[in-house]
Design brief:
This protein is an alpha+beta fold and 296 residues long. It contains nine helices and ten strands. 33% of the residues lie in helices and 18% in strands. The longest helix has 29 residues.
Amino acid sequence: MKKRNLFLTRLLLLITFLVIALAVWTGRAEADVHYMPDYEKIDLQDILQKEYLEVRDYEVLLRQTGLGRLGVDELWGQERQEELLFLQQRFFAPIEYECRRRWVLYHSERVIQETRDETRYNGEDTNEVGEHGNLEEAADHGDFLPTVRTGDILITFNGHFLGWRSGHAGIVTDAEKGEVLEAMSLGTESRICALEHWREYPSFILLRLKNTGDEKRQEIGKYAGEKLVGIPYRLLSLCGIEGEGTQCAYLVWSAYRFFGYNLDSDGGFVVTPYDIYQSDLLEIVQVYGVKPGNCP
């Protein structure tokens, strides 16, 4: 009898320890939902008026807006510099989000409110910003993904299984139409989704294939949109898509693998969003809710 009581006591202690450990592990994951800059928001007007940018200017713009050199050069080339003001406002703005249960132990976060900062960028007591007249109008004229292109890859880590942030990935199949191919969840098939829904994630990373022109990336995006739609979701899909299923990161990997690009950075058994994020074949175009230069 005593041995049985001792066994039950130890079992109870073990279960209690595991529950506490899982709670702490999950709590730490939920603390990494959205990065808020821990440095000062500065006035960008002097930089925006420059014809040519220096290395330091690109570094400042990345830390202030989340937009990398590729995206900055595109805005400069199209004389759309003032859109950086919207990105800066959004990058520094507080958000409210909720954690939603997707499966039994899987949760993901979604933005429920973004708070606009009605402060002038140069510190004066007015809301004027460039030609739009005020900050609210400037925000209304902004695009949260102003330089996205067909073939680009979107990654978010706003999804976690207990304390492991598995994340989600998608490939842009038509930037002009705002379409992204995604494998969303168990019980569904890969499908074309609206790019706009990525605005709901508290954080994301926009990636682009290095050293290739628009034509090749558009070819990859078009292939994904035509050939990789309607594939059943399989959590542990490994090799081969047709008849075997897919999952979000594997879907993106497959589109690029068809053209000879292996985005699986660690060559492991399963492709994850983190594997794609770490690929040397890709470069960052834009981050949001992520510390520039770091992975959550």
